[in-house]
What does this fold into?
Amino acid sequence: MRKTILSILCVCAVLAVQAQSNMEYRRNSLAMMLVYHPEDEFGGEIYKAFDSLPIPDKYDDHTIEGMRVINNRTVGGIQKRDSGYYKAVFGHQLNEKEVLANAQYTEDLLNRQEMGKKMVAKWFGLSGHDVNDATFNTELIQTRGQYNASDVDVALALQTTRGLATLSDAGEELLGQTFVLVNDVTYTTAEQDAAVAKLTMGIVGGVFDIFTGGSAGRDLAKVGGEIADSFTGFNVKTHSYLYQLVWNDSIAAIFYTQHYTGQPDSAKIEAFLKDKTTYRLKYVAHEYEFDKKAVLKGEYERTELVRTICARSMDKNIVALAKQYEDFKVKTPVYSVLTNEKGKIEGYAAKIGMKEGINENSKFQVIQRIQDPETGKTTYKYIATVKPKKGLIWDNRYNAVLEKADGATLPYTTFVKTGGGEILPGMLLIEGKYKKVTE
It folds into this structure.
């Protein structure tokens, strides 16, 4: 009898693990924008490349229609400049003052365009042709947060302690984890590098001739220039500015009591649309990526070359920002537990790889998301620590398969446990330490 009960419990545990592994997890929500430089030779191709790239799949897409591009020619100047952004160009790197000026200018620009309000409107499904028939709903919050409809029914939630706690949880876990990433992409060309190479070799050649009395230096400069001219392509300079939707208890109270309505209510909708101060974005972090030594393998036509380089450059900045800014960290579920033919655990699979910056030195916490059935609040419990297994890191970067890169054909990255307890499918991996985790 005891064996039978144990068997039933084991089966139930397996089914629970399978259910957990199939469960969607809560991603941060992200909108990406581009500072477009129509004055640049490659500006149009960078624009096309950006426009063709999807939001990274570790984030939920919170793109706002019509707000994908900032045209550098049409924006006002920064700090009394004639026009546009402080710009990273060949021979000039942005200093801290210029970066901060760009960041603050963009924050002001986004808030003047009411980007924060539009992000809130998307979260709550604002619909309707005019204020007389417009309404809000919580369908997107239900989907992304895995809440039951009754859990986030605003009218009911405002009447109970548990309901208020659930709305607070949705705010902290979802709305407060909503970001805008503005990418300012400029570049250096091979021709610019070639010109510098020619000048450098010419100077060296001239000095060489003084000491030798011959033309060997000038010949060397000519060869150096030809070698430089033979290289085609460019290296991008990507400044990424990260902004977060400001959402707290006081803002939530204004929204739920003064603006939210599930039934047509022109007064509340009009109040929401006219509100210019409540819903805002704040600048939180900056990252810069430029790697002159980055080399692409394989053959690319010009448009695909630009797309690949831009995609990888922005991915690198996203990785760096996630390490730099706690709230922007990426959570990834354990895909499966890997065992050998004898049933011994040999590792853990997760659909994350080099695109997310994983290397042999990366360290991850395994955490378990727990939702209190009484309050609806979410907590995170530490389970274990893992690291990638050498030689089994998935290269999931843009076009890695085309380049036949090492690890590109792997279906996932394999991790090995370095400490902690039992790891089950559906538990979450998060790089480094996560402040929300409880032991």
Residues 329-438 form one domain.
